[in-house]
Structures are given as C-alpha cells and as structure tokens.
Write a structure and sequence with these properties.
alpha+beta; four-stranded mixed beta sheet; 4 strands
C-alpha cells in the first residue's frame, strides 16, 4: 500500500523551535560507526515525524545502553531513504533478490552481522 510504519522508542519535542528528535535505545555497546540500518531507521522516524507533526527533524540520537553512550546522527540526506524504499519495492514486485555480499552468511554493514 506504500505506507511507512515504525515504532519510535522515544521522541523529544522542542515546541519553541518546532523541532523534534527521534531517540533509539539499543541494548548494546556503541560501535565504531553507526550502522546503516540504524541510520535508515532514524531517517524513517524523522520523515514520519515531519509528516505527522509538521516539526523539523535535523538529527536524531541513538542511546547505547551497555556503554551509556549517546550518539547524535545527522539526518540531512533523506533521498537515501527513498532510494532504499524504491529498491525494496522493486525486489518485492519483481521477486528479484539483490546481489549477495562478498561475505558469507552476513551483510556488509548492519547490526545483525554477528548473529550469522
């Protein structure tokens, strides 16, 4: 149906400046870099917040519980989100799997790579 659905862990609102900030809670240590899947999740939340509440969302946060770290993530390139959504729609519509990574049993850049 073309709808985006997500559940935000937390949203901080600044009513004076009409800005909002999605906050993800991850029960893990802070990695060396933010995983693409986590950044896309924040981008989707930012897009929905802007659409539903008419607030600007320039960045979001990821709180890593085990290391007690808070990472600020800028969300300025939303075009990446729409390109990814289009790729996913094409995969589903055409039943065509994307090329595998060069790594066996895992993705190149995601938080699930240690599970395989």
């Amino acid at each position: 149906s073309g709808e985006f659905i997500t559940k935000a862990d937390c949203i901080a609102f600044d009513y004076q400046n009409k800005t909002a900030f999605p906050i993800q809670l991850k029960y893990s240590y802070m990695p060396r870099k933010v995983f693409r899947s986590q950044k896309f999740q924040l981008m989707l939340e930012a897009f929905l917040i802007e659409k539903m509440f008419n607030f600007s969302v320039p960045y979001g946060y990821i709180k890593y519980i085990k290391s007690n770290a808070l990472k600020k993530v800028w969300l300025n390139n939303r075009e990446e989100l729409f390109k990814l959504a289009e790729k996913i729609k094409n995969i589903i519509a055409n039943e065509h799997f994307p090329q595998p990574t060069k790594y066996k049993k895992r993705c190149v850049d995601c938080c699930y790579r240690r599970m395989c």
